């Protein structure tokens, strides 16, 4: 059976920890990495009720979207909500891991799942992240260029959208003079040698750069490999926050609000919009998404669905004459992210078919609604 470390490694391959936000804390937070796991419970949040479920079902591990530990604990005693949960996990020998903003930023992640709940089509990333890509350029002799190119691709280089093994090559001449201390693959010590070489360029996600460089060097015949790494300024097409797509047919505002409430299972919606608005293009961001309000407006969306919208921000969709440029809809933090439980369960079950994976039966949101 897989260990807790195996499960975390699978999550990391799916949504690499390196793409998390700086404030975040993800991965294994409590427990023995070598603990063998036969049952996993997934949830949006960790609560006492979720731990109760794990104990009752014999689950050795819990995986949630929201981390338990954002800040270091100075002591581990059952005093306070977070320390008490960590203490009990340790007592019950239950491993705990979280996959948070790295899944938020993953193509096909949280916001894409939310877009699916609303029936959006042609979904793309709302706010692509910059600084996620590097360009690796290596110079290889013609005799070994294909092998070097293949090794880099197998290590994860050259992925652009739905295409893999992407690279650019140009032929040229490499010149060098091996010193007396060198052991050249071609040429003689002390003499300038000219070798037909190929310049190979590939895009690399920053967290795979180390593995790609190692694979490249292993496949390269030279003892001193000439290569360059460049920062890429353009945003990644597949890494970023939020999602934007189009409804199958335009909906009147009331009909769209009903769809949002039904899809997210929200008991109440808070919104700002023109009553006569017709909704076709929709931007979404699971959880607290107002950081991407500008991106939603710039995308040409007729509506932006997210959570945790504060009072004054409901004025932001209005133009200078007080007319709404875009419907702003707060469906709730939990309501726009509970679908993450489904994502987690499907991924873990797919990666480990012999593992028993279940979603929590607990609605973990601490927020309650009173409707008089």
From TrEMBL:
Gene3D superfamilies the UniProt entry points to: 3.30.70.120, NIF3 (NGG1p interacting factor 3)-like
Keyword Metal-binding found: yes
Record keyword Metal-binding present: yes
InterPro entries in UniProt: DUF34/NIF3 (IPR002678), DUF34/NIF3_bac (IPR017221), DUF34/NIF3_sf (IPR036069), N-reg_PII/ATP_PRibTrfase_C (IPR015867)
Binding-site positions, a divalent metal cation: 65-66, 104, 333, 337
Any Pfam family the entry gives: DUF34_NIF3
UniProt-recorded Gene Ontology molecular function terms: metal ion binding
Source taxon at top rank: Bacteria
Keywords, alphabetical: Metal-binding
GO cellular component: cytoplasm
Subunit structure: Homohexamer.
Similarity remark: Belongs to the GTP cyclohydrolase I type 2/NIF3 family.
Identification of the protein by name: GTP cyclohydrolase 1 type 2 homolog
């Amino acid at each position: 059976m897989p260990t807790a470390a195996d499960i975390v490694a699978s999550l990391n391959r799916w949504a690499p920890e390196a793409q998390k936000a700086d404030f975040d804390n993800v991965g294994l937070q409590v427990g023995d990495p070598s603990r063998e796991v036969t049952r996993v419970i997934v949830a949006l949040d960790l609560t006492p009720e979720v731990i109760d479920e794990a104990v009752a079902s014999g689950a050795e591990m819990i995986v949630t979207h929201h981390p338990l530990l954002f800040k270091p604990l100075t002591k581990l005693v059952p005093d306070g909500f977070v320390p008490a949960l960590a203490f009990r996990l340790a007592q019950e020998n239950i491993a705990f891991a979280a996959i948070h903003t790295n899944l938020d930023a993953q193509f096909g992640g949280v916001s894409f799942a939310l877009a699916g709940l609303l029936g959006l089509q042609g979904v793309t990333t709302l706010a692509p992240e910059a600084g996620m890509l590097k360009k690796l350029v290596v110079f290889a002799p013609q005799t070994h260029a294909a092998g070097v190119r293949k090794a880099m691709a197998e290590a994860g280089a050259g992925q652009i959208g739905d295409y893999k093994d992407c690279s650019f090559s140009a032929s040229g001449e490499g010149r060098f003079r091996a010193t007396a201390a060198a052991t050249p693959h071609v040429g003689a010590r002390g003499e300038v040698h000219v070798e037909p070489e190929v310049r190979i360029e590939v895009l690399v996600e920053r967290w795979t750069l180390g593995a790609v460089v190692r694979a490249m060097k292993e496949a390269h015949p030279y003892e001193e490999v000439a290569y360059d790494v460049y920062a890429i300024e353009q945003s990644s097409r597949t890494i970023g926050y939020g999602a934007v797509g189009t409804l199958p047919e335009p909906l009147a505002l009331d009909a769209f609000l009903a769809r949002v409430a039904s899809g997210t299972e929200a008991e109440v919606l808070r919104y700002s919009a023109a009553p006569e608005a017709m909704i076709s293009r929709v931007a979404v961001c699971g959880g607290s998404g107002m950081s991407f309000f500008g991106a939603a407006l710039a995308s040409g969306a007729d509506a932006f669905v997210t959570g945790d919208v504060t009072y004054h921000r409901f004025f932001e969709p209005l133009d200078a004459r007080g007319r709404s440029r875009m419907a702003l809809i707060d469906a709730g933090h939990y309501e726009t992210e509970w679908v993450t439980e489904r994502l987690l369960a499907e991924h873990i079950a797919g990666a480990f078919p012999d593992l028993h994976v279940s979603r929590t039966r607990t609605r973990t949101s601490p927020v309650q609604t009173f409707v008089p």
